[in-house]
What does this fold into?
Amino acid sequence: MIKGKGIPLTITFLTGVIIIVTFFIPHSPFGEFEQTALRWYSIIAGFTMLLGVDSLLRSHIKKFRKKDNNWEYSIVVFIAFAVIVTTGIIATVRTGNAFNTDTSFMYIYNHMIIPLQSTMFSLLAFFIASAAYRAFRARNTDATLLLITAIIVMLGRVPISDRFIPAVPALTEWIMSVPQMAAKRGIIIGIALGAIGVSLRIILGIERSYLS
Amino acid sequence: MNDIIKKLTAIDRRYLFIIIALVVVIPLLFKPKFPIIPKKPVIDAYKAVDSLSAGDNVMISVDYDAASMPELQPFLEALLRHCFKKELNPIMLVQWQLGAPLGTRAMEKIAKEFDVEYGVDYINLGYRPGYTAQIVGIGKEIRDYFITDYKGDLIDSFSVMDDIHNYDDIDILVGLEAGATGNIWVQYAGARYNQRIILALTAVSAPDAYFFYQSGQIEGLVGGMKGSADYETLIDHPDVAVAGMAAQSFVHILIIVFIILGNIAYFFEKRNKGKTLGGK
It folds into this structure.
């Protein structure tokens, strides 16, 4: 009789084995089963968003109650969450779809989310510049090689080098296609082998950390 | 000399920030022009789309959000222009929920430039969660995931979807990627269903797709804003990405200058330390 942790382990084992079989035998009944399992996965993935919201709100409620560092920002999270949910519901009720271009929901997206996300990402340019000046040092041979390569690739990736130093873009393509790719292939093969190993450990019930 | 080196090493980073801001803003205002010479991975992407015939279906996956918008949105618009000009049928879907309005915005904008009708010549399927399952599942039937379009209308009510059921009915797939979703397109849609694929990635992610390009698993590779500028040049419609190339060129050069200055200061500092220690 399977009980306790044996139940999720058995479900994991059976699902894992069947999904592997369906990959190699896509015919009936395996093909249909795979498609059903994939639909379930998609539905479960939808519900994970609720988990995310729950986790976010809980952590901020805790922070707010304990008056932890920067607890004031939690108030911004609560207000933003309430406003987004309310405008989303109002927009859906009024127009049938919150994503219609003239809704308040989309107004928030266009005038707050886009500028905020763009600002966060563009700040990187400033930090990269500062880091390049302060930290990118030719301390040893490896760092010097990295530095020279970075300079060549940075130059080769912009059209100004096409005009003034046309050899650099060609050299950049070579760097990307040969040494860069050689290293990347090694890494990706390692990752793939690791993923197979971890998957087998999970399917066979050796790796159980996901149960805790 | 030592004083200069000391000043260089102790420079307030806010001055660096101001210089960066100026170097970005000034070229955007004065728009100096540089020749854009498209590179082979982008030319291959262009040729793959250009070789399609009128009525062919191009699946476009919007897998980025506003953070990557300056790099990928220009390519999306250029691609849509190319598709509509060639009378191809773009089928848009979204794997990053915050990218959905960006896809819609581009599609509505470019569709207005051409004599095309929603649901007949193109469609926007919107976002669904669980992209790995979806990418595998579309191999059997797209309706298992997209019964309705982004507005909630049944996709079977649109003629453009009449003959589209799975990857067999998609002539090429173009993934615009800010993350790892492109790998999943290649691993499942490409490897399992032999789907022809082009990837457009942010500059920082582009090196991750070079081995797919070299092995022929993707037919073209558009990397960063430069890739978008290359594509805009190829379709002969220079736009936002081409305009951004001057700013990007000068910023890259400025960062190289910063690196060189930083290293000069470092070497002098190191030499001075050596002399001091030697003196002791």
